[in-house]
Amino acid sequence: MLNRRKFLQYTAFTSAMLSVKNSAAAALLPTKSTLVANLPVVISTWDFGIAANQAAWKILSIGGRALDAVEQGVWVPEADVKNQTVGYGGLPDRDGRVTLDACIMDEFGNCGSVAALEHIMHPISVARKVMENTPHVMLAGDGALQFALENGFKKINLLTPEAEKAWKEWLVTAKYSPVMNIENKSYGKAAPQRLPGNQYNHDTIGMLALDAKGNLSGACTTSGMAYKLHGRIGDSPIIGAGLFVDNEIGGATSTGVGEEVIRNVGSFLVVELMRQGYPPEEACKEAVMRIIKKKPQTAKEIQVGFLALNKKGEYGAYAIQKGFSFAVCNQQKQDILIPGKSYY
Ligand code: ASP
């Protein structure tokens, strides 16, 4: 027998189905691409998500809260000196400054964010403190740094010798102007093969977790687009763009050229599509299609990928370009990397 809640969910789903009947969207509901994991589960963008998921799993597997899992999970790439797109070791902006963007969201719809934060190893934890200890959602630049230092975070130099060398090599040919999607292009000896999705082109970590109690949280953290203009903020710290979580429905996160994600409020869109009944992969695909439809020429040159997890533990991803992958960790499939489907 259906209880009231299930009945309401069921009728909401069937009326959503009816409302999209005869439309293109009807063909998307539901499909074989649905991947289901039992609780708890954690998923993350890119192959560095494997190590991050393992850290998150330590918390989830003992009944811990998804919020703690995502925070501690993304600490791994944030602290990884070899990872040139997240946290410490990240490539700097055009002026040689490493500026970090991060946000976090819990099962109650609380959220916190920092943008263009310098000198702090774990921006995600500063974002969590903004969420929990202030009446605000977002702090940026010097104010975010001041808040971090007042809350006991240590000031460090985030620019490693390797990242500095890569920046100086870039300066030689780049004529001091930022290039869209530079991460995907060859430049300098420090990172000779930056093709979409290869080992040098790992971008933001976006992580979504569903804990044993069935609660969702998400985290997103990055050093942003390499050699961006100083002060540029991407999608990653923007709630609804780089990350969105609705504990009734699911969560979504993004990676790639943040400007296109912001223009389409990408992660919010994915969650709202899931609310209408789209399975996670199809919701991600539809969000990607919006980007392609609005700017077909730009889309040929850039990468954007979305990753989504719904309340039932179903997950999926979709990207513009080949090469996007995501990591999944749960009881059955611990630590697997799944190639994301793509338009091109
Ligand atoms: N989305 C990030 C940004 O635009 C970077 C990335 O994932 O490549 O800042």
From TrEMBL:
This is N4-(Beta-N-acetylglucosaminyl)-L-asparaginase. CDD domains: Glycosylasparaginase (cd04513). The active site is at residue 204. The record marks 203-204 as: Cleavage. PROSITE patterns: TAT. Residues 1-26 form the signal peptide. InterPro entries: Ntn_hydrolases_N (IPR029055), Peptidase_T2 (IPR000246), TAT_signal (IPR006311). Substrate binds at residues 232-235, 255-258. One of its GO terms (molecular function) is hydrolase activity, acting on carbon-nitrogen (but not peptide) bonds, in linear amides. It comes from Pedobacter antarcticus. SUPFAM superfamilies: N-terminal nucleophile aminohydrolases (Ntn hydrolases). One of its GO terms (cellular component) is cytoplasm. Keywords: Signal.
